């Protein structure tokens, strides 16, 4: 902790009012830190109070009262006591009797206030099959149980990466099924950067808007065009931008685009327009006031008779004042709104935006053709649509119309790889070699192998063919320090008849399974 | 013109992208009095470029015309002189998002290579961030530094000519993100770790082979990195075009003239050709496409 503070920790501390992202495993949830407010995350409720003042990235344990308890960074990994492991799953029978603890037992353990880690240990101790599972199956079991019983939660600072993953994982419908790798393409291809003027039209809960703003870093301006009554920005709010970012954000209703383009929304006229608007608004508010009055009189019919009461008169006067104040506030708000509209209009009027980003439920063709007019020459634009056909139309129309080059219709393809690391490998390798030479004592097993000249080993490698080379390479590299002449060949288990070899094969193939670099089944 | 800031008009010293046609572009440096030959004839810099608006149509000496585009890191990626294998926009986009890059980020990169990724990083971290880029090949480092200067981004970048595996990034405790594109990234992981700010950050390693990925993951795990994840991203370009499908002829129908008339109306468009047919707009995936570029391994360096 005495490390010279190159970067101040103060800005990385969680404070009340911050927008944060809760993380457990691959699950994220965006929340605002409020004291004494119940937050439900992964079917568990908690209070965020204790996270205030702690550092971003901290992991907490949730106790039975929903309180957060900071976990020490050192003991993140748990020494779960496993007591041995089986070689393969031939003895595992799914008879539903392997777990001796019942649902009720587990519930009572929970009520006793046992931590997730302790419950998992109980489950392991009471599982009849756990010890017969392979080391890897055990790991998987623990991981699964951890997900169920552990109540850790990590508090992160929101970024577009995290929020895009969160929306994609939890509520893809809200972001038009926009995946994070596609969002990445849009931000890069759109050349979104600080100091530019970007037009955004999205119905992705504000995620795209927020991501654009993050890339602009509070420099330049973003004009959000919105359909309907007002812009949707929940996703953008979740980024928790500092206040000066909001000064760069403008909004303009889609329904006034034509007026703006035809010049019927020009500045001088806008003033007139806004004044008349203001008047009608006043009328609106006064009519509202009158209905208020009506309500009042109906609720207090006797008050008329005692109107001579000075207290009552004062009350009336006060309510009059309040009404006026409200009307005044409303006028100020309307004025503010008009100013914002004028500012956004002024930004658009130049028709010199540096970028255009569209990701919406609307047909992309009219949206793009309509909004492209606001973009300066030689600037990139990007349109996302969940479906391909509307984009084909978009492409065709724009091709016919001209005014754009380098048009491309693309999709992004993403695949996750599960990479298993060497660290596990070395552990097994050692016991494997021990197995080979149990007879000789006082000599290290590896040296013994050398002496006996058993430096040619044949392995059976179970893996998909295209990965064979990779697996082979792994073996080669790990063994070459022990053997001088290695010969490698591929066999098939059916043809192995020697007992020794069979044993070897069994052991090896069991290991090999875990060296397979497997794919997740989804091509995204 | 700058790679981190748009301008409206072309000035002397700018780098502009000449768009010659579909997928055919070339970068040129604008110099008063100079000429550039294209297949449509010569472009005279003084009269055709300087003072003109970016995006203008320029008529060349042989009468053909081209567009003059404002450079962007993405256009640069497809136009830059290759000194090494380069990173392309699809990978760059994901690297940028997954490394949480934004204005103000401090980034360490190795190797610089041809500067394809460097330009994209600089665009995103400007105006207040900084890129420390390390290249072990002296000439490449020099050339990159010169390009950054020409592209008016030199104030945002420090180029170091050293071996990252032996000497690290030349900075310690400053980085928000580290990117590795070297043959043996696992040898640079400890240096990468040191480069991070105390609060940690994000790391990405790009490797074409899975064996490299495995050794890198092992090193990352050993050095206490978290959220290690390896992905591969590809971009498919769909070719939008019209296709014509012939309609089958089942011979005259028993139903009589009425239905035959209806059918003929439907295919009126193609009636004058010998075969009745229907034309539709579709997008086809390319028969061949740029496949595997590399695996992107991401990890989080926790606080500490």
TrEMBL record, chain A:
<dbReference type="Pfam" id="PF04189">
    <property type="entry name" value="Gcd10p"/>
</dbReference>
<feature type="region of interest" description="Disordered">
    <location>
        <begin position="71"/>
        <end position="92"/>
    </location>
</feature>
<dbReference type="GO" id="GO:0031515">
    <property type="term" value="C:tRNA (m1A) methyltransferase complex"/>
</dbReference>
<feature type="compositionally biased region" description="Basic and acidic residues">
    <location>
        <begin position="311"/>
        <end position="334"/>
    </location>
</feature>
<dbReference type="GO" id="GO:0030488">
    <property type="term" value="P:tRNA methylation"/>
</dbReference>
<dbReference type="GO" id="GO:0005634">
    <property type="term" value="C:nucleus"/>
</dbReference>
<keyword id="KW-0819">tRNA processing</keyword>
<dbReference type="InterPro" id="IPR017423">
    <property type="entry name" value="TRM6"/>
</dbReference>
<keyword id="KW-0539">Nucleus</keyword>
<feature type="region of interest" description="Disordered">
    <location>
        <begin position="270"/>
        <end position="334"/>
    </location>
</feature>
<protein>
    <recommendedName>
        <fullName>tRNA (adenine(58)-N(1))-methyltransferase non-catalytic subunit TRM6</fullName>
    </recommendedName>
</protein>
<feature type="compositionally biased region" description="Polar residues">
    <location>
        <begin position="274"/>
        <end position="291"/>
    </location>
</feature>
<comment type="similarity">
    <text>Belongs to the TRM6/GCD10 family.</text>
</comment>
TrEMBL record, chain B:
<dbReference type="GO" id="GO:0160107">
    <property type="term" value="F:tRNA (adenine(58)-N1)-methyltransferase activity"/>
</dbReference>
<keyword id="KW-0539">Nucleus</keyword>
<comment type="function">
    <text>Catalytic subunit of tRNA (adenine-N(1)-)-methyltransferase, which catalyzes the formation of N(1)-methyladenine at position 58 (m1A58) in initiator methionyl-tRNA. Catalytic subunit of mRNA N(1)-methyltransferase complex, which mediates methylation of adenosine residues at the N(1) position of a small subset of mRNAs: N(1) methylation takes place in tRNA T-loop-like structures of mRNAs and is only present at low stoichiometries.</text>
</comment>
<dbReference type="GO" id="GO:0005634">
    <property type="term" value="C:nucleus"/>
</dbReference>
<feature type="domain" description="tRNA (adenine(58)-N(1))-methyltransferase catalytic subunit TRM61 C-terminal">
    <location>
        <begin position="64"/>
        <end position="301"/>
    </location>
</feature>
<dbReference type="InterPro" id="IPR029063">
    <property type="entry name" value="SAM-dependent_MTases_sf"/>
</dbReference>
<keyword id="KW-0808">Transferase</keyword>
<dbReference type="InterPro" id="IPR014816">
    <property type="entry name" value="tRNA_MeTrfase_Gcd14"/>
</dbReference>
<comment type="subunit">
    <text>Heterotetramer; composed of two copies of TRMT6 and two copies of TRMT61A.</text>
</comment>
<dbReference type="Pfam" id="PF08704">
    <property type="entry name" value="GCD14"/>
</dbReference>
<comment type="similarity">
    <text>Belongs to the class I-like SAM-binding methyltransferase superfamily. TRM61 family.</text>
</comment>
<protein>
    <recommendedName>
        <fullName>tRNA (adenine(58)-N(1))-methyltransferase catalytic subunit TRMT61A</fullName>
        <ecNumber>2.1.1.220</ecNumber>
    </recommendedName>
</protein>
<feature type="binding site">
    <location>
        <position position="135"/>
    </location>
    <ligand>
        <name>S-adenosyl-L-methionine</name>
    </ligand>
</feature>
<dbReference type="InterPro" id="IPR049470">
    <property type="entry name" value="TRM61_C"/>
</dbReference>
<feature type="binding site">
    <location>
        <position position="181"/>
    </location>
    <ligand>
        <name>S-adenosyl-L-methionine</name>
    </ligand>
</feature>
<feature type="binding site">
    <location>
        <begin position="114"/>
        <end position="117"/>
    </location>
    <ligand>
        <name>S-adenosyl-L-methionine</name>
    </ligand>
</feature>
<keyword id="KW-0819">tRNA processing</keyword>
<dbReference type="GO" id="GO:0030488">
    <property type="term" value="P:tRNA methylation"/>
</dbReference>
<keyword id="KW-0949">S-adenosyl-L-methionine</keyword>
<keyword id="KW-0489">Methyltransferase</keyword>
<keyword id="KW-0007">Acetylation</keyword>
<dbReference type="GO" id="GO:0031515">
    <property type="term" value="C:tRNA (m1A) methyltransferase complex"/>
</dbReference>
